[in-house]
Automatic annotation (TrEMBL):
It is found in: Nucleus. PROSITE patterns: PROTEASOME_BETA_2 (PS51476). Keywords: Cytoplasm, Hydrolase, Nucleus, Proteasome. The keyword Cell wall biogenesis/degradation does not apply. It comes from Fistulifera solaris. It comes from the Eukaryota. InterPro entries: Ntn_hydrolases_N, Proteasome_beta_3, Proteasome_sua/b, Proteasome_suB-type. GO terms for cellular component: cytoplasm; nucleus; proteasome core complex, beta-subunit complex. This is 20S proteasome subunit beta 3. The keyword Nucleus applies. One of its GO terms (molecular function) is hydrolase activity.
Length: 204
């Protein structure tokens, strides 16, 4: 079993009409043994900016703390908030700088830019970044999530429809993956604010 699948994870981010959503499962396991069912994998970095970290649980926590430190430094120096695109570039640089002893994490950046337009990007564990217009996935059941997102995604969804689509895609995907699941959490980011809902899934 790969170290990337050791703890299990499933994260999806999807763009809508002037809104963006990000969803993740809640399970932390050691291979097939469930350790916790409330492990956070999505972190709010700014009011309209979230980062999802799938991979090794210890590296998820380390990288989250490092990102918060770097973003606070940026705010002190630049006297402005970091945009999603800048955060994505910075995260890619952090991962690439550790390429010979990498963080075992595959991040997703999701948020609204200064014009309230959706921004989505994902990267591998050494920082090779891909920006997308529709959806991005990360974790142990990416094949399932790609299939569900390709089936359910429609352009320019409103916030409520985006939530329903993300919830259905996530729950259907983790049902077929042994190392992720135990419910989920969905954040919908709009220009008015963030709507967060928890999902109850199969617990077996």
């Amino acid at each position: 079993m790969s170290v990337m699948t050791y703890n299990g994870a499933a994260i999806i981010a999807m763009a809508g009409k002037d809104c963006v959503g990000i969803a993740a499962d809640r399970r932390l396991g050691v291979q097939l043994t469930t350790i916790a069912t409330d492990f956070p994998k999505i972190f709010q970095m700014q009011p309209k900016l979230f980062v999802g970290l799938a991979g090794l649980g210890t590296d998820v926590q380390t990288l989250k703390n490092l990102l918060e430190f770097r973003m606070n430094l940026y705010k002190l120096k630049e006297e402005r908030e970091m945009s999603p695109k800048v955060l994505s570039h910075m995260l890619g640089k952090i991962l690439y700088s550790k390429r010979f002893g990498p963080y075992f994490v595959e991040p997703i950046v999701a948020g609204l830019d200064e014009n309230n337009k959706p921004f989505l990007s994902t990267m591998d564990l050494i920082g090779a970044t891909s920006e997308e217009k529709d959806f991005v996935v990360s974790g142990t059941c990416t094949g399932n999530m790609f299939g569900m997102c390709e089936s359910l995604y429609k352009p320019d969804m409103e916030a409520e429809e985006l939530f329903e689509t993300l919830a259905q895609a996530l729950l259907s995907s983790v049902d077929r993956d042994a190392v992720s699941g135990w419910g989920g959490i969905v954040h919908i980011i709009t220009k008015e604010g963030v709507l967060t809902k928890e999902l109850k899934g199969r617990q077996d």
